[in-house]
Amino acid sequence: MRAIQVTRLDGPDGVAVVDVPEPTPRESDVVVDVKAVGVSFPDLLLSRGEYQLRPDVPFTLGVDFAGVVRSAPDGSGYAAGDRVACVLPYGGGAEVVALPADSVFPLPDAVSFEAGAALPMNYLTAQFALATRAGLRAGETVLVHGAAGGVGTATLQVAKGYGARTIAVVSTDAKAEVARAAGADDVVLVDGFLAATKELTDGDGVDVVLDVVGGDLMTDSLRSLAPGGRLLVVGFTGGAIPEVKVNRLLLNNIDVRGVGWGAYAMARPGFMRSQWDELLPMLERGVVAPPIGHTYAFDEMGSALADLADRRTVGKSVVRL
């Protein structure tokens, strides 16, 4: 079978489609014929050897993917022919994947495989950030940095699903349109976002900030919080890891909270499925509908990662088998 592998740790240039043996499943594994693979920031970091997980080269990329069950053990809740979405730390970018049932989720018939491959990591991260880490309540206001990207658009939609107001922060007018299409209530440009946010909230500030960008946004993000507000640190796509002057937290009774979804969720059996069950009603209502930015051929994963590295992507990019 074919698999998208990192053959050397040179970033996108070290990614190639290679022939590998089909997996030998364990008795407890679900075997999936893969139809689409999501393109994620962890894939890019893995290709550079910069992720917290550093598998030996060569290894197969692919954090989230969707397909059809080929076989499943009794008691797993799945059967041959079921449509599913799946998530792994890596290894989903192959024509056939064997994985634990805990990492497999039922995909409604109305949801395409491409959309299914755009769902798991981004939307489970967003749900974990908002529900578990922020304790989001209906009626609160959520400001989302990097709002036209995969995690950003997911957060806009999940926040709406929980009854929150959303403010999207983007870098260009084109990305503003993506955020609006994803359901943002208000959209502001990153230059001057603090003043714009204060104006939109009548000077009160927001209850939650979700930041996937990092860099020099941190200070103004803290200033944008209302008393009792929570800033969620999800990633550093901007490159630099910011520092926090903790006196700012004391003065306004605000929090900075880390969001490490993968290490938390994958170590707790059944947790990801409970998250998925929270999202299913939002999918059925159409509140959650992942925007697919660009679809690539199976042998174009390197190009997809290069576009991601150069911040040319909007929404979620997907590789189609």
UniProtKB/TrEMBL annotation:
<dbReference type="InterPro" id="IPR002364">
    <property type="entry name" value="Quin_OxRdtase/zeta-crystal_CS"/>
</dbReference>
<dbReference type="InterPro" id="IPR011032">
    <property type="entry name" value="GroES-like_sf"/>
</dbReference>
<dbReference type="GO" id="GO:0008270">
    <property type="term" value="F:zinc ion binding"/>
</dbReference>
<dbReference type="Pfam" id="PF00107">
    <property type="entry name" value="ADH_zinc_N"/>
</dbReference>
<dbReference type="Pfam" id="PF08240">
    <property type="entry name" value="ADH_N"/>
</dbReference>
<dbReference type="InterPro" id="IPR051397">
    <property type="entry name" value="Zn-ADH-like_protein"/>
</dbReference>
<dbReference type="InterPro" id="IPR036291">
    <property type="entry name" value="NAD(P)-bd_dom_sf"/>
</dbReference>
<dbReference type="InterPro" id="IPR013149">
    <property type="entry name" value="ADH-like_C"/>
</dbReference>
<dbReference type="GO" id="GO:0016491">
    <property type="term" value="F:oxidoreductase activity"/>
</dbReference>
<protein>
    <submittedName>
        <fullName>NADPH:quinone oxidoreductase family protein</fullName>
    </submittedName>
</protein>
<dbReference type="InterPro" id="IPR020843">
    <property type="entry name" value="ER"/>
</dbReference>
<feature type="domain" description="Enoyl reductase (ER)">
    <location>
        <begin position="11"/>
        <end position="319"/>
    </location>
</feature>
<dbReference type="InterPro" id="IPR013154">
    <property type="entry name" value="ADH-like_N"/>
</dbReference>
